[in-house]
């Protein structure tokens, strides 16, 4: 299910826009919804605690 106001789905941290959200079939409506969803995603991300990831392992590329 999709909350039509927040565009968030029942799946935590998953938002939708456009045809998936309200089946508007209009590119301009989809773009507006995507902008709203992006703003709401940003607000949710700001509430989250940052996670520190370990450094990436170096890959060695062999020249042929």
TrEMBL record:
It comes from the Bacteria. Gene3D superfamilies: FAD/NAD(P)-binding domain. It comes from Paenibacillus jilunlii. This is Uncharacterized protein.
């Amino acid at each position: 299910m999709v909350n039509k106001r927040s565009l968030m789905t029942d799946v935590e941290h998953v938002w939708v826009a456009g045809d998936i959200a309200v089946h508007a079939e209009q590119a301009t409506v989809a773009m507006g919804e995507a902008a709203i969803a992006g703003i709401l995603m940003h607000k949710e991300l700001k509430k989250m605690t940052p996670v520190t990831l370990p450094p990436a392992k170096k890959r060695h590329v062999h020249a042929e």
